[in-house]
Amino acid sequence: MMTDAASRSAQHDGPVAIVCGGGKFPFVVADAVLKRGRGVVLFAVRGWTDATVVARYPHHWAGLARFGRFCRIARAAGCRDVVFIGTMLRPSLWELRPDLTALRYMPRVAWLLRGGDNHLLSGIGAIFEENGFRLVGAHEVAPEILVPEGTLGRRSPSEQDRADIARGLAVINAMGPFDIGQAAVVDNNYVLAVEAAEGTDAMLARVAAMRREGRIRHSGRSGVLVKAPKPRQDRRIDLPSLGVRTVRAITEAGLAGVAVEAEGAITADLEELVMAADAAGVFVVGVPVAAQRARS
């Protein structure tokens, strides 16, 4: 139950502006914020957000680079805090149709597009903050989406799995300065794949193809998908995510399980994730990354 102090704070801070991409996460976050007694205004990106579901919430449709319109609507609604959440492919510069407010930022946006996702998103976030908004992480307003520490289902990782997890975290740590990706697959200390622009699902599809082609010779389920934020990543945006689809993909790739940084990855429904993992016979574990990286 919300205390009087928390209720006053929620009212004082005003509604949260949620810039929505695709998937379930925007709505999970919106529900969590509403449950805490605070309002939301959803800014749904055309072509990505589910129109049927977004209609249940106070919302406006948002075009890419229509920044002036966003500022006017958000300020009129009393929004100061802004959350970016949901899937979306990065646009090319030529796909953007900037309004007059956004137009003055286009040289900067062009420079931001010449780099990795953290470079781009943190730069876009800085533009919002320069205009009086406060960029906050989805997990800050909805902490229940964070994956906790520990083994989360019936199956636990073996000693070899734990060694593979440590190697995977070391790989992600090494890739960090290049802003490449947030995931790797390791099998018996052998790095099978690293994530780049294709995303986790496509990376796992490559692993599944290698197993079908006999290029992975270990019998039975072996290997681990490891996901963690990049070192020095702005954790208010683009934390690694996993869900039932992740479980399905690692099962098809013949992996033993998935490990994520504890409280450094998000899931839309933890109970559903664990049930799917148990049914598939794979493990899900949240690991304390400082300790794991020290082992590598």
List the helices and strands and how they pair.
Blueprint: H1 4-13, E1 16-20, H2 25-35, E2 40-45, H3 51-54, E3 59-62, H4 67-77, E4 81-85, H5 100-103, H6 106-112, H7 117-130, E5 134-135, H8 138-141, E6 150-151, H9 159-175, E7 183-187, E8 190-194, H10 200-212, E9 224-227, H11 244-252, E10 257-261, H12 270-280, E11 283-287, H13 289-295
Parallel strand pairs: 1-2, 1-4, 2-3, 4-5, 9-10, 10-11
Antiparallel strand pairs: 6-11, 7-8, 7-9
Q: Can you describe this structure in just a few lines?
A:
The chain is of the alpha/beta class and 296 residues long.
CATH architecture of the largest domain: 3-Layer(aba) Sandwich
Average pLDDT confidence is 89
Strand content: 15-25%
Find the CATH topology of the largest domain. Cytidine Deaminase, domain 2
Structural class: alpha/beta
Q: Report the principal-axis shape.
A: globular
Q: Could you give the order of the helices and strands?
A: HEHEHEHEHHHEHEHEEHEHEHEH
Distance between the termini: 43 Å
Number of helices: 13
- Helicity level: 40-55%
